[in-house]
Design goal:
single chain; alpha+beta; 6-stranded antiparallel beta sheet; 4 helices; disordered N terminus; disordered C terminus
Amino acid sequence: HRSSDLATADPFLGTPANSWADRAAGIVAPPAEAVGGFTAAQVAAAYATTGELVAAASLDGQTLLGGPPAALERLLTAGQRATFKAGLDARGLGKDGRPLSTRSWVASFAPGTAQLDGSVIKVSGTMNAVAVAESGRQVLRVEVNYAFVYAVEPPHNPTDWTRVVTHQSGSVDFARWNDPHGALEPWDKTVVDPLSGVACGPAD
């Protein structure tokens, strides 16, 4: 939705998102219960970490405005952090049709093209834990499915504001990836896709 007028105090008025929670208050985990061979305490810890990863990918102001995605980077395990940093400047699409750039792991506008209209970001979605076997290893998988709605405007042009909707989905997988006797570590397998309000070239 675009308007020739300034955004109202509530740019989400008249949309389903108006009743959604604001920011991290919308990233709520269900009650933690034991699943597979994982305890309720392990599930609760996985939910907490997943919530932090989702917030870092889709709510961090610096990342949203095209800056370094340091909020997500510092939450990743060392191996995945290296992959994330190395792929941020990649171009084009892979064989699966998905962007090669790891910036698709976060919600991010091109630098200098947008600013948030106010501080409110609307959030709705779910996370759910399941136990899966992967290459003979037991994995605690937290499946995520969240929508985010941002009110944005071009810099210095508040009359051309619009709402942008993104969808973060996939999973964060927890396992003892490197040490069979160590703590569960996350492996972020979520992606962020724009749903409406933006137009993107297929290779950018």
